[in-house]
User: Fold these one by one.
Assistant:
Number 1:
Amino acid sequence: MEPFEIQILGCGSAKPSTRHNTSSQLVDLRSKLFMIDCGEGTQLQMARYHASYARLNHIFISHLHGDHCFGLIGLISTLGMLGRGHAHSLHIHALPELETLLRPQIDYFCHEMPYEVVFHPFSYDHAEVIYDDRSVTVSTVPLNHRIPCCGFVFREKEGARHIRRDMIDAYEVPISQIGLIKNGADFVTPEGDVIANERLTMPPTPPRSYAYLCDTAPSVSVIPLIEGVDVLYHDATFATTEEGRAQATFHSTSAQAAAIASAARVGKLVLGHYSSRYDDERPLLDEALAVFPNTVLAREGMKIEVNKNCE
Amino acid sequence: MEPFEIQILGCGSAKPSTRHNTSSQLVDLRSKLFMIDCGEGTQLQMARYHASYARLNHIFISHLHGDHCFGLIGLISTLGMLGRGHAHSLHIHALPELETLLRPQIDYFCHEMPYEVVFHPFSYDHAEVIYDDRSVTVSTVPLNHRIPCCGFVFREKEGARHIRRDMIDAYEVPISQIGLIKNGADFVTPEGDVIANERLTMPPTPPRSYAYLCDTAPSVSVIPLIEGVDVLYHDATFATTEEGRAQATFHSTSAQAAAIASAARVGKLVLGHYSSRYDDERPLLDEALAVFPNTVLAREGMKIEVNKNCE
């Protein structure tokens, strides 16, 4: 199966901490690399974990708090220094204000840069598909934060059917027909017999999906938009003892994140965006596990495979 | 003696590296904390080395390449989150374009911030005193880089004379007179005898000085401006094998840095701003040592005491 993997580059919240970096992660999906959020120091985290600068073409920014976007200008500048060519644009999907804020800095600091930065604005008040290619769509999920903020859902498209090697051999299907059969065609033997596609193939792998919901107060309106995703990364800034603070700052407790995961029947929950007050996130995990058993703590460098049996 | 200490927060050059952070350092001088340059991730380096956010009031930016200033917006934002009050302005000394570039971001990302950021522009075409208080002056040193760029010299002011405890006791000088005597006054005994100040005191500690010259091609015009400083931090981006590249990019080799240190008769040379091509800076050190023996390699976290016998 082609890879669909998340790598955490930063899972702390805004205040500086030596335990965690600010928000950023990579989505590696069928040889394409996407980034979600880009806090300060993200380019260094990429270097630390040997992530590919060359494969990164699309960055999705959830909202315009600094801990989710202050690393962009450094990353953009570095991509230029690393020799990214003029045919290799970088696409940034964000609320429209980001271009207004960042373009003057790009023009000043990166005026000799050979490649182009293209901004793709989206609106935060309704869910929409903001990226679509032959293998994946990315949709927004409006969240409930202090400022306009969206989550993202990455949904793999259904692939071709799987060839049954044994049947192909048995019917002596020529190689030239394989592509057609993968796409659903029947096979006609030289004798004129029609072999139904269902005998020659098995159904395609069910498409996989990943949702990133950070930063947000717990919001039931997200549930239909993320229903059944294989992996959910959710704001878990606080423990239940700080539920009042979570509410005041439009963040979630880990138990609230788990309740959303449970209601949306996701496969696996990844907790993140930890407040810097925690020297140990184990209590956050324990509170979530009591509500939703398949929960893990994000940590920097961690890779999470997205699949149908996210154990 | 009151402390005068440099701490390196980053001594790499622009390309990302897991060996070094981009440029920033702290100057801790008689209880005041100054920052020079502020590359991406500087606020995190401060957290790592337990530097005081509260004592930092003045930041000096040498030039507007990203690896010297991309960390400012994150640091400014964090100081606000840490509760810096409205009576506690942050002063940034830089070329005038920095305010144009940074003010819109401060207004957008930090609009709830309780304290003020005050920019103090300086010009790069002549040396000038840009900061002056009762204990220190900071002067600019125009450098020879691809874009306008200045170094900085921190010069301690001459302090008060040192009281000779034995003589104060012998003449039974009352405490009320001590301050005047430290500042040079003679003492008149109750009998009307005049005791010359020189008998009661010893000369003040010679003032100490520190020069930061980064980024620059080797430039003889700096020599009179840094003559005799106790510690010099100098651009040493390359080894001699890369002298052509150093010239093309307006940087220095470590041997060129050492030649400047020698010509300016400084006390100690600190090499920094290493190219990311070096996995080991020992060859840079060796080439400098052959020219100027009292040379050290900067590394992150290192503290360098500035004194008259910089061994």
Note: The mean pLDDT of chain A is 95.
Number 2:
Amino acid sequence: MNNFQFRNPTNIIFGKGQISKIADEIPKDAKVLMLYGGGSIKKNGIYEQVTAALKGISFEEFGGIPANPEYEVLLEALAVIKEKNIDFLLAVGGGSVIDGVKFLSSAALYEGDEPWDILSKGIRTEKGMPFGTVLTLPATGSEMNSGAVVTRAETKEKLVMGGPGLFPVFSILDPSVVASVPQRQIANGLADSFTHVLEQYMTYPAGGLLQDRFSEGILQTLIEVAPAVMKDPADYEAAASFMWSCTLALNGLIQKGVPTDWAIHMMGHELTALYGIDHARTLAILTDSHYTYNLETKKEKLAQYAERVWGVTEGTTEEKAKAGIQKTKEFFESLGIKTNLSDYTDESEGTAQKVANRLKERGMTKLGEHGTITPTDVEKIVAMAY
Amino acid sequence: MNNFQFRNPTNIIFGKGQISKIADEIPKDAKVLMLYGGGSIKKNGIYEQVTAALKGISFEEFGGIPANPEYEVLLEALAVIKEKNIDFLLAVGGGSVIDGVKFLSSAALYEGDEPWDILSKGIRTEKGMPFGTVLTLPATGSEMNSGAVVTRAETKEKLVMGGPGLFPVFSILDPSVVASVPQRQIANGLADSFTHVLEQYMTYPAGGLLQDRFSEGILQTLIEVAPAVMKDPADYEAAASFMWSCTLALNGLIQKGVPTDWAIHMMGHELTALYGIDHARTLAILTDSHYTYNLETKKEKLAQYAERVWGVTEGTTEEKAKAGIQKTKEFFESLGIKTNLSDYTDESEGTAQKVANRLKERGMTKLGEHGTITPTDVEKIVAMAY
């Protein structure tokens, strides 16, 4: 097991009717900016619940943060924060809104001239403006971690940021909200959280016995609840296990002390930036080809996964590993997610090279848990995904 | 799944050579009291590592905190804290030292006249004196939770305390320290952490799908590493998984959203207070009879445990449940722990009644996840343990 440090101070408030507790978690004299996305919260009752819960607290609103939060829109919100002397942020939404608010938390206290530097120069945020979240869509785990991904439309860039200053002070997780999530987004949430676990688990045996068990436990739970939550998002018990699994999939715990991959995400971000493919679907597209291409270095863990998660008992290590890849592809397809790149874009020529070149331009030439996946490998992996 | 709140802000610093990082975690101007137990840290090199790491920081020492930290000894340490204007505590030890320091953290800021009230009146600690820990013995999980157990020798009382003010600021977990732990204490650590998980898991199905998987994962890991760590405590990889499993067994995570039992602990504490039996051994003694006595209400989870953790595939639910109990008893015995009360005390007459009466006197008349275990039941369960 590798040495590690783990600290996650976010206060999770989980369950039915918990949105009403927001005001207990925000300082009474705070000047709050409530941020949300395209307005679905005004249709499903969450907007009313949140604003009712904020009674007695001074707050402004900023709606319209798009999926893959765009830098240009976030700059408008940043101007509101400065103009209105905001000192506490409240994200009401899924991963995109929460990630956008994390950028704002950092940018609001950033002393440089150009907030984009936080992303392009990889500046770690030690201290951000305090913020809480009300999660409306289980998927990214952003509600209990200190990372974020922000997109810049004009340059088609999608970059990551983070730091210990970016943990939410609190996050309210009411599984009842899942009832109004469209099925497409539930499928995305299942695939996204599933891949988050895979990226932290599917490497090589490294003595992380408990980390492996926890990772396998999240995968098993997602597989177990997927049919129920896809069939009826108002099934509270299924939604609760789905939501808690998404959070634990990326709150830092399972990656501590073990190697991690994240190459699927790095390649997937480029597909989203280039073609606007849903984040989760880019992951589902690339999983099969990434694991097949890297079978030799990943086969022990792939076989362990096939055995423990899918109950595959027959075959050699390599055969089990391949069965694990196939089961994963079938799981994504069972969610209605197409897993071939050709299902998403006609641009069959040049895409693989484009992705490779874009990563190369940013110096991301050594991906994967061994740091051995070069732009040449990326090109082959993406090409295999057609 | 039940509603829950989860926040655990302790900074875990895990791995080889991490004790040297202590000074980074303590305010430079702090006046520190370093507390430890019977002096084993002076023999195994940990004392030297800690004091070397504290270079440049002003600190005093208090040694001699006994197993099952005694109130009388802790009062002496409290006097030192007040006399020397201490404002930061450092526990170097196992669960007893850490629990003792938690009491001191609370008592140092307590405004009442009688610190024992914190225990006897169940006063919750909202704010304590900040403290860190250097763990020398994996077992109790106290290094990453906010609870403690303190004993008062004169009245033979062993009482629990806790509150959000009692999380360690940091805990240093270096698995290398396991190399010098006597085998008896390693066995105790395995049994203690194993039972911690059982108390939070062995109730009834309650929709905590992920919590069940995590609990089962900790149990599987403890079973997997037990032979290696018993055979050679210097096996770093085994010690690392053992240590991290003990911490995760009782850091709050697996109990969130699900019912918990804790009756074994409540009865076990009385056996320790009455006869001085090692805490972990009291748990091993009572597990079999508690689960057998409560088979009807626990059989679904017992059968699930037998299947998933021990691979029991044959039989009815009840047969699997009984197999699970038997496997547990055999696991404890495999650690060299005798699991019958008659192995520990000749006082075969009256013990069961004594335990029942003591719990009754403290108003603990409704134990277990259903609150249905009365002193009459306690008497029968303890009697069955002979």
Note: Residues 209-231 of chain A form the longest helix (23 residues).
Number 3:
Amino acid sequence: MRIGLLQINPVVGDMAGNAALVEAAYARAAAAGAELALTPELALTGYPPRDLLLYQGFCRLAWAGAEALAARLEAAHPGGPALVLGCPEPNASGQGKQLYNAALWCEGGAVRRTIRKALLPTYDVFDEARYFEPGQAQDGGNVVEYRGRRLAVTICEDLWNDKDYWPHRLYPVDPVEAAVAGGAEALLNLSASPFSLRKQALRQDMLSAVAARRGLPLAYCNQVGGNDELVFDGRSAVHGPDGSVAARAAGFAEDVLVADLFGSVPGRLEQDGLDPSAEIWRALVLGTRDYLRKCGFTKALLGLSGGIDSAVVAAVAVEAIGAQNVLGVLMPSPWSSAGSIDDSLALAQNLGMATRTMPIEPLMQGFDAALSESFAALAPGQGPGTTEENIQSRIRGNLLMALSNKTGALLLTTGNKSELAVGYCTIYGDMSGGFALISDLRKTQVYALARHINAVKGQVIPENILVKAPSAELRPGQTDQDSLPPYDVLDAILALHLEKNQVAAEIVAAGFDAEVVARVCRLVKFAEFKRRQAAPGIKIAWRSFGSGWRMPLAAAPLP
Amino acid sequence: MRIGLLQINPVVGDMAGNAALVEAAYARAAAAGAELALTPELALTGYPPRDLLLYQGFCRLAWAGAEALAARLEAAHPGGPALVLGCPEPNASGQGKQLYNAALWCEGGAVRRTIRKALLPTYDVFDEARYFEPGQAQDGGNVVEYRGRRLAVTICEDLWNDKDYWPHRLYPVDPVEAAVAGGAEALLNLSASPFSLRKQALRQDMLSAVAARRGLPLAYCNQVGGNDELVFDGRSAVHGPDGSVAARAAGFAEDVLVADLFGSVPGRLEQDGLDPSAEIWRALVLGTRDYLRKCGFTKALLGLSGGIDSAVVAAVAVEAIGAQNVLGVLMPSPWSSAGSIDDSLALAQNLGMATRTMPIEPLMQGFDAALSESFAALAPGQGPGTTEENIQSRIRGNLLMALSNKTGALLLTTGNKSELAVGYCTIYGDMSGGFALISDLRKTQVYALARHINAVKGQVIPENILVKAPSAELRPGQTDQDSLPPYDVLDAILALHLEKNQVAAEIVAAGFDAEVVARVCRLVKFAEFKRRQAAPGIKIAWRSFGSGWRMPLAAAPLP
């Protein structure tokens, strides 16, 4: 039985547009001989629809859209392949959450059957228990008979609870066991599994293990594309009953993969590199391109400081939407080095993007004049310090936002995760912008990515940007390391504290200096208010700031 | 049996401080003859601890703190009342989430028993399924024998699922039924139930109904105080077996209520008004005071525009932390009316707070000069418009943040919910600030609150501020109603769309003009990016922006 995996890139909430994507992909699969077609999870609404699901008017429209799509497919392809379509299903039981996260078995022009997701991820960026009632994983309840075969339909997390694979299971039931008990001959999985670093290796290994353990072929259809902070990396696949990868769709791109589910015909196997910087590059480019497109922007702008962060952001933006659509803005102050300006101009020239230069010294003087009397009255004897540095940064934020407002280009903010973690950034200043695309990359990862970019795109980032000491250039001779531990130390501590959920004592036990650890953890805590007002970025790490980071503000520091 | 309800105001994450609050309240209760003491839900960590719970080092500390507290109480009060203490309990089963949301029965110097919350709210601002494994609501499993009585321990939501009370139940089980099956003679409830408008009437009615239906007395101990966006209103109570309120603690203040659980001794019954503006006033004052205190601020500042919003915010701030700790900043532009300045000065004088005045015209000219060439090049022929209005607002934001940075006073932002809903506000401009205390009040609610303030505090808000047409004063002669529908219409549409989850067609069916509804819903959708970067506010409505509002950004508009 040939199965078509419709790896589409939906827009959240755009049921008509997403149905059209499914139709087009279905037609391609049918033309390639597919007898059955599978979409990603919640394909009709796009994943994650989040609180749109709290609007019953929205959910009714999704259901009606599914029924209409089923009818249209039959009209265009009479007797064609069944479609297993991800769509929220209203819960008519009168108890519990209003919806199920369902797979709709569409055949002969109608929705014939629904299978409901049993395991609802409610951790990190996932909030499924907020919206959905779990389906019951009863023996055979997820098995559909189709053209002489017994096919088990599962949805994403349903496959992620094998008791032999996971040392710690999150759920007491396993829908795969229910499928096996029901005599399933193959496992189908509708998925919306977002990218994070090292996820694909885990995912492929886990899917292989489940297929091999059950001795069943497994077809896995993942969503692709950027939706806010999440980038879905596709890589839909068919595994053989021995666990081997029999066919794999493209990573980070739309695709339709048609492969034989039971037979021995070799499928198409897209190459799939797992080098961290290469993966990050693909994720950032796709995530940025989709965020702009799905928000209705065609142009972007950013401030170029001469540093590594803005250089990398510029390179991503140019790759995502083309150099002609990206503007770099130089806003030198008296503390800017000549190198910063030259390096920025060289970068822009290498990338082929336009620049504008607007010195900010007159505005700095204007703010000094406006504030000096108040400062003298309210804080007598205090000299210039962080306040004045922040003023510079906020002048630049105002200029950039003015250009954004005037031209309709989205302002990209350029801060990295190390800065955002410890608050080495100015709220309403350099944090201004609609999308913070490298805000989940630690500084050391930014450097590695820059080297990768230069390797694959030619030396677009000038060597000088790669080798100079990082500096905010907000006072004469300043460097980041005046205020922060060396980045390799800082980043290693942050990885343990932010991504492994370790408290200070555990990090010290791992071999770091107690005073440095205490200082870093304190900085992280007291920058929480900045992160609360930060622009969304692209999730790269296992655990990231953003929608999956829910820390209290008016709280005591962690121990 | 006399029971002490320890209505404390914990700081999230401050286990040592919260244990000290419990100890002090316990001592008061014991001195008043209590034989049993009850804390709020998760009293030792404060509620909601949010992602602090993902740190095992934090949870271990909480558990150790509970054991130490039990021992200290016994040492100080040998043979004293048992304490039922809210605290997270590690899940040692090796499966599922790492924690239970538990009540610890502390007696004789140790934790004798734990009872686990069975119903885990996962909606709106609540994320309990993210952290906790549910307890099992087995017959009698939540019943503790103590001094000859069978007492059922429940935690917050556990009481909120009576099948006769609720037309739509969220959970299939009811811990109260398990308690009754176990022969319970009274229901105890540890709660952290946040304030929202009309919640207290529902809560008291529901608790009465549960007590009366089961014919059991009910003791309910609620948390009090502001924790980030949530204000907990206290109002702990004892209900008799007929449902009547036998005793009630203070609203919006710490309290220890000691009352007879089974006897007929009348308890203390604090007066409790439910006038909406009066409740809002108490919630805002407590929420603002606690946010500042728990973040370590003693001073606040805000921009005074001469409008109703900043007037109300100033009045709340003065009530919360004292006039001597609040600074008002006037930043007139050429478009500011003389009335705005006079009204602001009169307001400040009435409230007894200091002001500073900083005209912004020179800075507006500075930005014009910095930007004119770029505007001419990038947007030829475009005249002044929203961009220039935003620049003014961002100049003010920069000045206010500079004063905040220099003086260590928290900047209060003054926007209301109507503005924030439709995006009638400038990101990084008037949205700048650490706390947006009226951001969950629609404009019409702000007016009603202003009249309430004048009624209870004397005419502190000048009449002129109450009667003039609302205006952002960002261009000559501007009023809000140039851009927006009349506020009574706008607010009514927003209430349906934001708080009743109605889509446009439903709102039109309720009698509103289709074109106006479509425009308002579109504005709400396209202001989502501003709300993503907004300061936290105080939750007042049933459904609010903030942590319980989780909308996608790069998404299609709702139907």
Note: The radius of gyration of chain A is 26 Å.
